[in-house]
């Protein structure tokens, strides 16, 4: 399934919750995490400056860790 790239902290949190609650077993969970991390990496790579990428990474990590 194609996932839209989240635009903000709330959308990242919703994506993570949705994906984890939809997982059917540990392998499915792992695969879903890998897809989310790939999206995260692509978002960071598309940032126009290192500072922007750093801020985006901090926002995502804060979302994941609460």
From TrEMBL:
This is VHS domain-containing protein.
């Amino acid at each position: 399934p194609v996932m839209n790239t989240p635009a903000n902290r709330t959308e990242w949190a919703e994506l993570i919750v949705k994906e984890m609650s939809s997982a059917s077993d540990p392998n499915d969970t792992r695969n879903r995490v890998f897809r989310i991390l790939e999206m995260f990496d692509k978002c960071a790579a598309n940032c126009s400056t290192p500072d922007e990428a750093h801020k985006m990474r901090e926002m995502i990590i804060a979302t994941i860790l609460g």
